[in-house]
Design brief:
By secondary structure, this protein is an alpha/beta fold. It is built from 10 helices and 8 strands. It has helices at about 20-30, 45-60, 75-85, 115-120, 125-130, 165-170, 180-210, 235-245, 260-270, 300-310; strands at about 10-15, 35-40, 65-70, 90-95, 135-145, 215-220, 280-285, 285-290. Helix 1 (about 20-30) links the parallel strand 1 and strand 2. The radius of gyration is 19 Å and the shape is globular. The model is unreliable at about 1-5 and about 230-255 (pLDDT under 50).
Length: about 325
Amino acid sequence: MENERTSSEKTFIITGGNTGLGYACAKNIAKDNKKNQIVIACRNATKAQEAVNSLIKETGNDNIISLELDLSSIESVRDFVIRFSDAKLPPLYAIVCNAGIQVVNKAQYTKDGFELTFGVNHPGHFLLVNLLLENISDAGRIVFVSSGTHDPLQKTGMPEPKYENARLLAYPKEMGSKEETGSIGRRSYTTSKLCNIYCTYELAERITQQTNKNITVNAFDPGLMPGTGLARSYSPFLRFVSKYILSLLILVHPKVHTIGKSGKALASLVTKPELDTTTGKYFEGTKEIKSSVLSYNKENRKDLWRTSVELTALNQ
């Protein structure tokens, strides 16, 4: 006979939890409480299972599984939700929307026709969270991984975000030369990270005003983490710089972090009891700060939400 679920058992979904920041986050959550159920949501089933095996070995927590999720496909997101519901896991407590990409070498599109960087970084997570919202326990948590690159004042070296409307982000104008493609691709990334914050603030407000649940929604900036997969579409030289040269900055720059440090900070946003009622906020690591001036534009926020509902056919 199966053991009865205890109230302390909780399920945590981590997108892109097979590597980098997501893996480090999963490891910290798994260590925090051996009863925590971790779901690694990843599009590559083989890599996901390898991560699961490694995490179990590292943490001693056997409650870690993987479920296939391709955020570039609306169909895959919907299939994931069905399979998650059928898995009969402990109550869903938190969703960490961590997976993200940055495409700069050529124009690429999702299976639904959206520009790939925007499509993976925003609509996929938007749909995932909204479809699972009713499943999340009262006092549960949602975290969107954003980036300091959304704020021009941080002078990250990335193009500042440009938000005209969400439909133009999903279906951008034709790209030109390779140089233009690289610049547009990097701007698409910073703008998608701005969208993560818009989504955070809008969802936090909607939950507060329209539901009886005390689910918190916050955004997280992990800082610059050299050596992650975000630079995989860069040139060989820039990948080398990202992996080796920028790593030296960890020793001297306060906003350059190891993956382990940022993973621990991200995990704390869904495990620390003192954040039980903190919602609609932006965290730089473990520190709550103001996001960019542009991120508080409510018209943009509303436009993004309306368009995202249409793009993902949320209500159908």
